[in-house]
Amino acid sequence: MSQLGFRSGLMVPAYPALDDAQDVEDIITDEAGLRPPHGTAPRVSMVVEDGAFVAQGAPVACHSTQTDICFVAPMPGRVARTELLSGHRLSEIVLFREGGGDSITHDTTDAQTEAGLRRLMQRAGFWPRIGRRPFGGMPNAAERPAAIFILAADTRPHAPDPRRALEGHEDAFRRGCRALSRLTEGPVLLCQAPGPALADKDDAPRLQVVITGPRHPQASAGLLVHAEYPAGIATPVWDVNAEDVAALGDLLHTGALPQTRLVHVGGSALKTGRMVRTQIGADLRALTFRHVRPGPHRLWSGSSLDGHAARWLAPRHRQVTAFTPQAPDGAPHWLVAALTRSARPKPMIPTAALDQAFAGRLPAAVFLRALSAGDDETALKMGVLSLLEEDVALADYVLGAEAHLAVLLRGMLERIKTEFAA
Q1: What's residue 212's pLDDT?
Q2: 313 phi, psi to nearest 5 deg
Q3: 315, 36 in Cβ contact below 8 A?
Q4: In whole angstroms, what is the distance from residue 28 CA to residue 94 CA?
Q5: Which stretch of 45-54, 268-277, 399-408 has the lowest confidence by average pLDDT?
Q6: pLDDT score for 77
Q7: Which of 59, 91, 309, 412 could join 70 in a cystine, given CB atoms 3.0 to 4.6 angstroms apart?
Q8: Could you read off the pLDDT of 358-369 as tens digits, one per residue?
Q9: CA distance 225 to 191
Q10: φ and ψ at 260, to 5 degrees?
Q11: pTM confidence score
Q12: If we measure between CA atoms, which residue out of 68, 74, 77, 116 comes closest to residue 98?
């Protein structure tokens, strides 16, 4: 067990915290939307047509070229609408819930081999739950990671405690850890908050426990990867949430992949926060119905730092945030107005908070200068391939940059990806 050397971070002020002892409500919304991981749009082939009834876990679409990778129904229901972008790229598939449906089970007899385990994970719909670095998205079907990070800690504001999500599923979690260790020859790093180890090397070979701190971004996946096993073009790294690892363990034991997860619903527009267990792709309007304060509001899938406006719960998100739109405060100060109208971005002022936004693991001012200038070479040397937009969200918050850094980072990653693919 190792203690991660992150000595700094921030406690982000936000809406009143939820009582950790609050009961969890089981809510399956009547509508759900299947979407790819945020920022990606894979080419797909539809397996079913609009109006068709599907069982829970049944494939509704598969990847066009990697046909074992399936997108599956999170509940028994009827396909209401399919939206594809140009080139048959997946936008969303909307389903209406209908009672009495079955749940698909899979044959797990071949899952003791790496090839069989991969096929099971892909056909059961587990693959979109895996994050990869560099560049983001989900891994290719045959990709072999240099390391796998299991995220059993989350320091984003009001994120649900992964330990609570694992209650009653400890054996399944250890079974999932053991299975993931068969997909890599490198280490499997279990990142968790202080306390008893959730698994050890007796449960999975090459498992390493890494203890994270309580401040954000001390449990940010990108900074953990950067600190422990930096990602590279030839050395991709995967990250998986601990609750999904337990779901993998259940899949191996029962043949059915659980489609629900623990989600915190909160935000300034809500009367009170709530903890729910709901399906992937859940309708955010249904999760906040009767809990929103009177007046206009906006719904985000994800946290107040790195979420995005959405109708459906994203494949890897475990938070829903409801915002009250800020009313304009009148005419801005002349200097703020001048900077806003300027063709140049707002100035970046190095502060201690900016360094803490990267937990002291990156020289923040130098890194952000390289990002702003489009200096790919310097950013590569500093470890940009380990990072995604969510990892610079706190820096954007500190700078008040309104996701400016996230846009710059995505542009740089796409440029590097194109250059290496050429």
Answers
A1: 94
A2: -70, 125
A3: yes
A4: 14
A5: 399-408
A6: 95
A7: 59
A8: 988 888 889 999
A9: 10
A10: -115, 160
A11: 0.92
A12: 77
